[in-house]
UniProtKB/TrEMBL annotation:
NCBIfam families (alphabetical): ptsS_2
Occurrences of domain PBP (ranges): 21-254
Stretch forming the signal peptide: 1-21
Domain of life assignment: Bacteria
Function description: Involved in the system for phosphate transport across the cytoplasmic membrane.
UniProt record, GO biological process: cell adhesion; phosphate ion transport
Main location: periplasm
Localization (cell): Periplasm; Secreted
Protein name, per record: Phosphate-binding protein
Length: 269
């Protein structure tokens, strides 16, 4: 388990960054938080400055950066122009794959993007339709507001338009897990489940399947061969305190990007 650096309380989130003098406040995507906590811990060791990280989801992190309740917001999906102010800066700090993950006991090793999309739409309902056992597929998805869910739906074309509004096409009977950890627990304990998680969160408790015959690896993502991938973005006001800007500079430095790579993500420089 990675050490969580000074989780913010609800009261802390309601305070402005200026009140938390000397502390860099970061909130948002649970996927980005996985590496951000490690970056924060290392930065604290070398700078003696405190960084507080909270997992609140990408949409909440974007709002927090925009309204100033956090100095830095985290998003694991592309940010819409309507979610930004003219003073908001976006910085891509890493790239990550989204793994389609199954239980270690599942014999299915490869699925196409089309098959995965059909599974999540409810058009493929049994593992026997894709080379597995004759068992119903248990579909597992992330909660609304999750950056991982937003990116997955966009990449896998799991959105439809109703009355001019985009809505999810994922079957309503899908089990919902809040965060990568819960998705991993559900899939690791159900041999007939499929879920999607940040590639950097994959461990021995479950298995990332190949997609279109391509393994979910850093090299394949960097080469553009593995298609289910997204950026890790931080957002900050152009007039943010120098302490927040210093932390971003550390993340983008050779040391910071080395940590990004060591945690299983793709460095951007």
């Amino acid at each position: 388990m990675k050490k969580v650096i000074g989780l913010l309380t609800a009261v802390g989130l309601m305070a402005s960054p200026q009140v938390l003098a000397g502390t860099v406040t970061v909130s948002g995507s649970t996927s980005v938080a996985h590496v951000m906590e490690v970056l924060a811990e290392n930065y604290q060791n070398v700078s003696n400055k405190n960084v507080e990280v909270q997992s609140t989801g990408s949409s909440a992190g974007i709002r927090a950066a925009k309204d100033g309740t956090s100095m830095i917001g985290m998003s694991s999906r592309n940010v819409k122009q309507s979610e930004l102010s003219s003073d908001t800066k976006e910085i891509v700090i890493a790239r990550d794959g989204i793994a389609a993950a199954v239980n270690n006991a599942n014999p299915v090793k490869n699925l196409t993007q089309e098959q995965i999309s059909k599974i999540y739409r409810g058009e493929i309902k049994n593992w026997s339709e894709v080379g597995g056992e004759s068992r119903p597929i248990v579909v597992v998805t992330r909660e609304n507001g999750s950056g991982t869910r937003g990116a997955f739906e966009e990449i896998m074309k799991l959105q439809r338009t109703i009355n001019g509004h985009k809505v999810t096409a994922i079957i309503p009977t899908a089990q919902v897990g809040n965060g990568n950890g819960m998705i991993k627990t559900i899939v690791a304990n159900n041999p007939y489940a499929i879920g999607y998680i940040s590639l950097g969160s994959v461990d021995d408790s479950l298995r990332a399947i190949d997609v279109d015959g391509v393994a979910a690896t850093d090299d394949n993502i960097a080469a553009g061969d593995y298609q289910i991938a997204r950026p890790f973005i931080v957002l900050m006001d152009k007039n943010a305190p120098s302490t927040a800007q210093d932390f971003i500079e550390y993340i983008m430095s050779a040391d910071g990007q080395g940590i990004v790579a060591s945690e299983g993500y793709i460095r951007v420089q």
